[in-house]
């Protein structure tokens, strides 16, 4: 298959591109390198510098006749989205419409969209599945939810095959340590640079952390099964920030220097998803436990 991965110079997109290439597919990456890095692009993958919102996107689709378009390019800083909702909407909503329009008007590839459990807002049914009400509480969640609704439109009205994958908190090698989320990457970078790590609040807030290779595998599974719905991609296990610190210290063999700051307003107390729909449809399930995933992440950050 010929596969386009948008945002393939970024954290998750580069793992997805690598997984497709390793499975023997021809892979093209587009990225504007706003947060992504050229060195993240895997061997054997063709790179085209392009903004996902640009008019040239349609020409690329016409030229290449993709079979699958895996859309990971996005603005993904929740708190920046509060400061700059126009920027967030321009990249996430308009960029995604641009992708689906180009798909519809060219080779009609299977489209896979990277969505997020942030579309749900504050979770109150645990574990949250695809039926959980979606009431996002920040512009980032709103823009991602809007894209899901556009996907419904392109599916129903234009018959495109579109998979929407809602990830919880993804972690692993190549995660950007300079973002606001990604506690493992942030703490590892700070620790290895001799700096203090700051926990917002008492560290009891829990998250459903999923290792990036499990997310890449979910994307390949979605292509293989031509899934045409929305699926949670998560582990259905939860860990607190203090648990993460404990695992990091164990993997590093050293103590982290930690300080506590005020809790962040709007930070949900608990996120926990259910991957049962994805499992029933395809057999996919996460394979990496948190302790082992953190050991691998530490090893890659040390390099
Ligand atoms: N990291 C997580 O925990 C998480 C959780 C849920 C969903 N997601 C989603 O997964 C996707 C990838 O996130 P990530 O963590 O790898 O972030 P990332 O910032 O590492 O990757 C995003 C990539 O998109 C590129 N990009 C941004 N704007 C672009 C544009 N206008 N045109 C072309 N390229 C552009 C960036 O340069 C970067 O390489 C995003 O859609 C994000 O919303 C991530």
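Sequence proposed for the structure above (303 residues):
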């Amino acid at each position: 298959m010929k596969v386009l991965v948008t945002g393939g110079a970024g954290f998750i997109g580069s793992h997805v591109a690598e997984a497709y290439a390793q499975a023997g597919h021809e892979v093209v990456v587009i990225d504007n390198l706003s947060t992504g890095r050229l060195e993240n692009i895997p061997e054997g993958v063709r790179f085209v510098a392009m903004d996902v919102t640009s008019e040239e996107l349609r020409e690329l689709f016409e030229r290449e006749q993709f079979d699958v378009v895996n859309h990971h390019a996005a603005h993904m800083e929740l708190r920046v989205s509060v400061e700059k909702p126009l920027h967030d909407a321009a990249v996430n909503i308009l960029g995604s419409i641009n992708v689906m329009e180009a798909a519809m008007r060219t080779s009609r590839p299977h489209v896979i969209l990277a969505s997020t459990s942030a579309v749900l807002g504050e979770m109150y049914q645990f574990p949250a599945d695809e039926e959980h009400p979606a009431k996002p509480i920040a512009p980032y969640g709103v823009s991602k939810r809007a894209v899901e609704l556009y996907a419904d439109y392109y599916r129903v009205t234009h018959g495109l095959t579109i998979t929407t994958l809602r990830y919880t908190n993804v972690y692993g090698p190549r995660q950007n340590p300079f973002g606001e989320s990604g506690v493992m990457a942030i703490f590892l970078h700070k620790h290895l640079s001799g700096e203090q790590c700051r926990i917002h609040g008492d560290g009891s807030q829990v998250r459903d952390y999923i290792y990036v290779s499990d997310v890449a595998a979910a994307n390949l599974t979605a292509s293989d099964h031509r899934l045409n719905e929305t699926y949670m991609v998560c582990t259905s296990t939860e860990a607190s920030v203090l648990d993460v610190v404990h695992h990091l210290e164990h993997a590093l063999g050293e103590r982290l220097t930690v300080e506590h700051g005020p809790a962040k307003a709007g930070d949900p107390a608990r996120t926990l998803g259910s991957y049962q729909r994805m499992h029933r449809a395809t057999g996919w399930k996460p394979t990496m436990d948190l302790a082992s995933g953190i050991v691998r992440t530490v090893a890659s950050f040390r390099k």
